[in-house]
Amino acid sequence: MILKQGDWLYKKEHYADVVVVGSGAAGTALATKCAAFGLSVIVLEGGERDYSETSQDCYSGESEGISLPYGLKNSRLRFYGGSTNCWAGGCGVLNK
Ligand SMILES: Cc1cc2nc3c(=O)[nH]c(=O)nc-3n(C[C@H](O)[C@H](O)[C@H](O)COP(=O)(O)OP(=O)(O)OC[C@H]3O[C@@H](n4cnc5c(N)ncnc54)[C@H](O)[C@@H]3O)c2cc1C
Predict the structure, then answer these.
(1) pLDDT tens digits, residue range 31-54?
(2) What are 1-32's pLDDT values in tens digits?
(3) Domain boundaries in the chain?
(4) Residue 73: predicted pLDDT
(5) What is the pTM of this model?
(6) Rg (CA), the chain
(7) 60: Cβ–Cβ under 8 A, 6 or more apart, which residues?
(8) Is 46 in the pocket of ligand 1 (CB under 6 A)?
């Protein structure tokens, strides 16, 4: 179940075994694993269901010293799924 902020405000109290902040690869993997162990999970996502300029503007800023190909604002994505929404298909090899 996905609740928008407006719907969420009408519910006074929420209980869960685990609260995960962020719905990117890390948060979603953690939440899924916790749910598989039978734990109740709430995932809090700062952005909206889909991309919006208003939400993404929160990441606006200047980067000094490091040249970022997508600029600071677009180097991470602030909506459901996080930066996995712009994953370019590259996979690193895990060293043993
Ligand atoms: C253009 C681009 C291309 C990429 N290509 C590749 C690739 O080819 N291969 C690869 O392995 N990696 C790639 N990456 C990197 C990969 O996308 C990230 O490493 C990965 O998505 C990080 O996952 P994460 O869950 O740690 O963070 P994120 O995906 O950034 O998720 C964090 C989530 O938390 C939310 N959030 C942040 N703060 C709060 C808060 N205070 N409260 C609530 N919610 C919050 C954000 O809105 C976001 O949804 C790429 C990244 C970019 C930007």
Answers:
(1) 999 999 999 999 999 999 999 999
(2) 777 777 777 777 888 999 999 999 999 999 99
(3) 19-86
(4) 94
(5) 0.88
(6) 16
(7) 72, 73
(8) yes
Q: Which residue has the tokens 């690869």?
A: 25
Q: Residue 85: its pLDDT value, please?
A: 93
Contact 44, 22 (CB under 8 A): yes
Residue 63: HSE in the Cβ half-sphere, 13 Å Cα cutoff: 13
The response to whether residue 87 sits with its C-beta less than 6 Å from ligand 1 reads: yes
Ligand 1 in contact with 24 (CB < 6 A)?
Answer: yes
Strands 18-21 and 41-44: parallel
Which atom of ligand 1 lies nearest, measured to the CA of 90?
Answer: 8
Q: How far is the CA of 53 from the centre of ligand 1 (A)?
A: 17
Report CA(78)–ligand 1 centroid distance (Å): 8
